[in-house]
Amino acid sequence: MFTGIVEELGEVVHVGHLHDAARLAVHGKIVTVGARHGESIAVNGVCLTVVDVDGEVFTADVMKETLNRSCLGVLQRGSRVNLERAVRADQRMGGHIVQGHVDGTGVILTREPAEHWEIVRLSLPKDLNRYVVEKGSITVDGVSLTVTAVDEQSVNEKSVNEMSFAVSLIPTTLGLTTLGHKQPGDPVNLEVDIIAKYVEKLVTRS
Of the four, 74, 101, 123, 129, which is 20 to 30 A from 193 by CA? Predict the structure, then answer.
């Protein structure tokens, strides 16, 4: 489990393309401290299992299912990524409960700079819209964020299966995560609040 509080910006140093999977080698000075085979590290919000650690570089395998459901397939050597180690039971819950199981992908639609923050609007698959509420939590590329607005209308006539939502990014988030560098058109990983899914199942059971 994770909290969506990014520990550092890492860098992809190698991508090995396999027949139905990929192997990523990622440099991360903080997350590799004490890291061992079998431990979990979230890369842009995707929970990956550490295969090997060599100094400040860890290696992880990404299966086809993950490549299909997330944006990890577009990573290449030199790509910056958000990194977070799995949370310990005795740590503070700085963000919200994040599983590292991506529900879908979105695209950055617009960025509106303000004096002390930036408002970012992103597309949202229609089937995830019911889990996203104003002032609720959502994970974008592994970053725990508060939803500031939800658009109940389709993004446009050509994207009837896409809705949109907005978040406000503070200077810390802009400076310490990939969200400070991504531009309109760039894809992002999305994970909705798992509590919303459990509540839905409980109230709809016959």
Answer: 74
Q: What tens digit of pLDDT does each residue of 91-144 get?
A: 777 889 899 999 999 999 999 998 888 999 999 999 999 999 999 999 999 999
Q: What does pTM read for this prediction?
A: 0.91
- Give the DSSP H/E element, type plus range, for residue 83: strand 80-85
Mean pLDDT of the chain: 92
Query: Which domains does the chain show, CATH number per domain?
Result: 8-85 (2.40.30.20), 104-204 (2.40.30.20)
Alpha carbons 138 and 144: distance in angstroms, whole number: 6
Residues in contact with 164: Cβ distance below 8 Å, sequence separation at least 6, in sequence order: 109, 121, 122, 123, 124, 150, 151, 155
